[in-house]
Specification:
With 159 residues, this protein is mainly alpha-helical. The chain has one domain. The protein contains three helices and no strands. It is rod-shaped, with a radius of gyration of 62 Å.
């Protein structure tokens, strides 16, 4: 009986003890448990991936809605700006036309005032010239008679 035989016997006893203690079943159970754990992790990863895809789709939809809303707001702002621009243009034109009309009215009034002033000056000059002519040609007796006749004429017109 050499050492090889005893090593063989020791190996068989060792394998028997391992079989008696059910080490292969424990190893198989441990492997099964590990396989179940890996399977659960894969399923969880798959669920997380699906949730991530749903979130991505939702955020893309929200982004498109936000872009659409921004475009609508921009369009509305452009329309409002155009309306405001037209209103400002109309108000400016109205203001300019009113100011022009006021300026024309002031010019007409100034012309009328100038004409009246020239007429008044002409009347004053005519009166002064008539006084000088009458004063040179009429003496005091003729002026007294003229005054009396004018006074009589005035009385008849007032009554």
């Amino acid at each position: 009986m050499d050492a090889t035989f005893w090593a063989f016997i020791g190996l068989i006893i060792f394998l028997g003890i391992i079989a008696y203690v059910k080490v292969p079943a424990m190893i198989a159970g441990s492997l099964d448990k590990r396989a179940d754990q890996i399977r659960n992790e894969l399923e969880e990863a798959k669920k997380l991936r699906e949730e991530a895809q749903q979130l991505l789709a939702e955020y893309q939809r929200k982004r498109k809605e936000a872009e659409s809303e921004a475009e609508n707001i921009l369009t509305a702002a452009e329309k409002e700006a155009a309306v405001l621009r037209e209103e400002a243009k109309a108000r400016t034109e109205d203001y300019v036309s009113r100011r022009t009309a006021m300026a024309e009215q002031k010019i007409r009034q100034a012309e009328a005032d100038a004409i009246n002033e020239v007429r008044a000056s002409a009347v004053d000059l005519a009166i002064a010239a008539a006084e000088r002519l009458i004063g040179d040609k009429v003496d005091s007796k003729a002026s007294g008679e003229l005054f009396k006749s004018s006074l009589g004429e005035l009385k008849t017109r007032l009554n």
